[in-house]
Amino acid sequence: MSLVTALIYRRRHRLLGRLVQEALAFYGMEVPAAAEIGPGLVVFHRGFGTVLHPYTTLGAGVTLYNGVTVGRADPWVPQERSAMRRVVVEDGAVLCAGAKVICKEGVLTVGAGTVVGANAVLTRSTGPGEIWAGAPARRVGLRAGWPTGEPVLG
């Protein structure tokens, strides 16, 4: 487990929580205590520039690269009046470098095993084992036989 991942799991610690949040900020990461993180999180490149909204749930075995943003599409609206409820990134999903997952309303779900490509801007829910890319993101393929298969474009 990397230092950054260990810090993420300790951000809710009763006594050290604030210090851990500052250490994460040193790495350019914002992972609020309210964000729910499942076991087996993998963070590459120390997660530089990664920001998670407090209403984020990451499932088991999620992979985050640097520069990932998970948030809401209406940051100018007070949170209590926002139409966004939660972003759920299911087990085994991969959010590549610079990926943005932006929820407009309700719950946006990134399906289990889904890959969101580098610099993609995802604004809607995905199915399991899909590959999404572009801005705005669109489905460009499936992970054949996920979780063990090779990507198939199409």
Q: Strand order within the widest sheet?
A: 2-5-8-11-13-14-15
Order of helices and strands: HHEEEEEEEEEEEEEEE
Care to count the β-strands? 15
Helix content: 10-25%
Distance between the termini: 35 Å
Strand content: 25-35%
**Radius of gyration based on Cα positions:** 15 Å
**Low-pLDDT residue spans:** none
Mind describing the biggest β-sheet?
7 strands, mixed
Coarse shape: globular
Number of contiguous helices: 2
Structural class: mainly beta
Q: Give the overall pLDDT as a whole number.
A: 90
Assembly classification: single chain
Entry keywords:
single chain, 154 residues, mainly beta, 7-stranded mixed sheet, 4-stranded parallel sheet
What does it look like?
With 154 residues, the protein is mostly beta strands. Helix content is 11%, strand content 32%. A hairpin with a 7-residue loop joins strand 14 and strand 15. The longest helix is centred in the first third of the chain and has 10 residues.
Outline of the structure:
A seven-stranded mixed β-sheet has the order 2-5-8-11-13-14-15, with no helix packed on it. A four-stranded parallel β-sheet has the order 1-4-7-10, with no helix packed on it. The chain is mainly beta and 154 residues long.
